[in-house]
Amino acid sequence: MLFLVAAGLQLVFGVQKILNLACGSFYALGAYTGVSVVTWALGWGLPAPLFVLPLLAGGLALAALGPPLERLLRTIYDRDESFQLLLTFALVLMFEDVIRFVWGPAPVQLRGSYLAYGQVTVVGTTVPVYNLVVMLAGALIAVGMGWVLTRTRFGRIVRATAENREMAAALGVNMHRVYRRVFTLGVVLGTVGGALVIPATAAVSEMAIEVIVEAFAVVVIGGLGSMRGAAVGALIVGLLKAGAIATWPEVEMLAIYLVVIGVLVLRPAGLFARATP
Amino acid sequence: MRTTRRHFLALSAGAAAVAAARLDFAPAFAQSAPVRLGVLAAKAGVLAPVGESGLRGVQWATDRINAAGGILGRKIELVIEEESSPKDTVERFRKLALQDKVEVVTGAISTGVGLALGPVAEEMKTIWLAWDATTQKGVEETMPKPKYSFRSTDNECEAVMGSILTARQWKGKFKTVAGINPDYSYGRDNWAAFLAIMKKYGIELSVVSELWPKLGATDFTAHVAALQQAKPDLIFSCFWAGDTPIFMKQAHGAGLTKSTKFVLTTGGGVHESLKKDFTPEGAILGYNCFYFEYARASALAKEFTRWHQEKFKEWPNYESDHGYFTIAAYKAAVERAARAAGGKWPTQDAVIQALEGVEAESLSGPRRYREDHIMEATFFQGVTTHKNKHDFVTIDPVETMTTKQIQKPSGVGLYDWINGWKV
Fold first, then answer.
1. Which end of chain A has fewer CB atoms < 10 Å from its terminal CB, N or C?
2. Is residue B303 part of a domain?
3. Is the ipTM of this complex over 0.90?
4. pLDDT at residue B167 is higher than 80
């Protein structure tokens, strides 16, 4: 799921050159909305195994947040990066308050859906089937994104804009529209990520900050603005964490940041960075 | 009657004289002016639910006292500020003391904030009644002999009680243990206390996994995988926030709850989130010093629980009781000191003296402040059950222990005290 948030961050940065801290808030909002929507749908008699449908619908519906937020960010496209960080961090804090206002300060969770698909035992280890569903969904979204970006007209325009925004504009690309769409896509990646993860966890108001920190590690390792980097970075961070916890739990955080430092020193632009002009 | 000019002048002069007189005699009126009381309640992040809960207890206590005429006829007026980082919270404490001129400050949960507030309370000469925020080592360093700070019960009380229950219930029935505790003083201290007590009870065990996720973590799949590999007979955890249900849910998903024994010393703080779907029966679960369904609860506790449930649609947890007790203790101390002073509002020094050893009725029965400014209370833990009307686990039977049994006495080191037990 880290991949989805990191991918959203990458996409928005790659195209709009905006470092969007609020991607963590989209993740949190997706999680909270997922809980509400699914609880409501189950209350109306939806069969339990179908809970993923309203879950995804909730995540997708939050796309509505994209355009107005993009309009707000438009005011700082040409400013210094510090303005972007300030504004998007302000958004993080505001969303945290909104979440507390709507859902209250206590952890919120989905009832009974985590094991709706049962458990399987693979090589002596029991895993809920839902975990596999989430992995599959992550992989599908990654492939889908790859397809959209490389095979469709929209993807070509997005890539062209990422390469050279003035040239793309000069060739008649409507910048505002591209930005709006890309930003909304970034939002949806975050909200769907949050929605998908919620059956396995509980939504807490501080989850936004936590995921931002990890997403940044992913992005630094993978390389800013690179989709493949997001996927590989997320994989590295996930495996490192699991490996560290299984062998030497004390170094869980340290291991990730050692890799971050290593990448910064040896390949400052990240493993999959585009050649910088 | 028509108001003539002369008449008007006379009236104004009279009014001015009265106003002047009021200013002159202001101290004499102070008795009926409200008592201003500062509250530091966390509102954001991982502490938010706990801060909210403490604030509810304070508000309920205040409303009750005010409805009954206040403290010696003075109503309580709350000035509520937020507990956040140590630095900001210290600023707000100063603001409460200097600008709002509060007579006492109640609140603070975070250990880091508590360590910073202690010296400031002494410096500002403002009484501070903490809700929690009491890690031992740090407190001994920054507040060796506090005059103005009154602290909560020791951090380790819950681990001590949980460990005693573990030894009583499962001695000889487990060999391998794993700990998963938040990576800061609270988690570290509790895990160390657990191991020390197991040793004291002569339980031979091997630690197969020690996990330290950071406070507020929301994903434990990797930790659960490590626990699956380590295959402990018993898992000890002092998680107290949103991490508790998440960990239990993921542990259940991986099949860990089938045969492993769980000791959750502090999970009762988020008891409503421990749903039956994933929290097993037969685990030891601690509620700190307030259990909402205690059969022998006082009328006061029942009234509070009912009010809380009707107003917030939630069953209350221990932090409300900490908040409630600080207000009740302050009232009792003022009244005690006033009796000694012939009914007049006592000086601050007299109030502090009266707080030392003061006893007051809290929601969990009588509580008091020890002479060394540490709280004494009753703790509630028990074995989880699904047999209740809720969708979350409760405990049955309910065990209670007082701080006389599970808190180190004044002036003794924790481990010296544990080693001196007769078991």
1. C
2. yes
3. no
4. yes
